[in-house]
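Hi F.,

I've been meaning to write this up properly since the lab meeting, where we talked about keeping a consistent format for the predictions we share between groups. The idea is simple: the sequence comes first, exactly as it goes in, then the structure tokens exactly as they come out, then a line or two of notes. No screenshots and no reformatting. I'm using this chain as the first example so we have something concrete to point to.
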Amino acid sequence: MSVELTKPGLVLRTEGLSAGYDGRAIVSDIAVEATPGKVVSVVGPNGSGKSTLLKALVGVVRVLEGHVTVGESEITNLAPEAVAKLGVGYVPQVDDVFPPLSVKENLEIGGYLLSRHEIPDRIDAVLDFFPKLKSMMSRKAGKLSGGERKMLAMGRVLMLSPSVLVLDEPTANLAPLVATQLLEEFVRGFADHGSTVLLVEQRAKAALRISDWTYVLGGGRVVLAGAPQDLEQNPDFVESFLGGSSTRR
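Output, unedited:
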């Protein structure tokens, strides 16, 4: 990874976070922490509040109680643009690119906080990390494959050289081999080069393979947390999320 692609990671932390819609909490009393050089994943059943949690961190959903900090900065209920300025890059599960625009135009829009003369160098850094996009610069984003589109979505966020990457279901609707490459090569790669990565992922087994720490949500609360190798020994976790039997004796 280019040294210019991301800034050194910052600690992203929540304390006692409750958040939701129209004053009604979807997630409650959440405490999570993601640190530089680590992939921290959030898994759980559909409807457990995973996406709501991420949206609350980046200012898309209102925090009702508690705090969100990145580094030394309080970002609770800041506007998404202000959160981005403080180094947090967010890739949503849907609406992650502008389909009518070209790959190049999407990247340029991703650099909306940059001066005009900075944008070409930033695009070059992104293309060094996602070389497959180099031959697609004039292609409309809506014509890309699922994997190519997700690379572009992450590339747009990388235009601002974030310290923290918040990724919501990056492998949704991708073929298994493409999903594996995206997680193991790119998402893990961000952390290995010093970024902080917080990942919501429905593919629990794939998420655990690249994670340093995992939180399990259920009913809008953290019900389990631990290193992946420890969770894989927990019969309740294995039965609910891995579809098999624990190796614990």
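Notes:
Residues 244-249 have pLDDT under 50 and may be disordered.
The two ends are 42 Å apart (CA to CA).

If this format works for you, I'll send the rest the same way.

G.
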